[in-house]
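Q: Here's a chain of 161 amino acids. Please give me its 3D structure as tokens.
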Amino acid sequence: MECKEKMYPVLEGPALYLLLVCEMLLQSHNGILRFFPALPDEKDATFLDLRAEGPVLVSAARIKGEVHFIKIRALANVKWRILNPWQDKDFIYSSQNGRIKSEKYIEFNFTSGDEICLTSSEKDLDYSAIITPRKSNAQARKINFDDGMLTWLGKPEQSVY
């Protein structure tokens, strides 16, 4: 019995850490999209084209605790409810539908190829300034050992998927 009080959960494997980070940014269970549900308030985050449950790619940005935009692109016909991150505001803006009355959940029926952008203001519809892709200077490094063996840190060339 004494041992039971000293047991702690163990997280094993790199894939589990990736899952934890993704769940902090986007949750998509039971037909509801939730944005930044477990990210600490003081952390800023931006993500591009995370795949939600089903045929949907999602991008979003949160800066200084405020969600600036949500972009959703449907790859097939699908229905989603979005937990509204702007519930304290009267209206939100959609790039296709103009202004939408703010509710706890916002419902959308997407057809294949549909793309929408939701923001709390029209100025954030140009989200390209928020999420400009960064160019990386990262290079693979080769380490040679005295016995003639070598190893790579990083990859010597980009993977093709």
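Q: Can you summarize the key feature?
A: The first strand starts at residue 26 and ends at 29.
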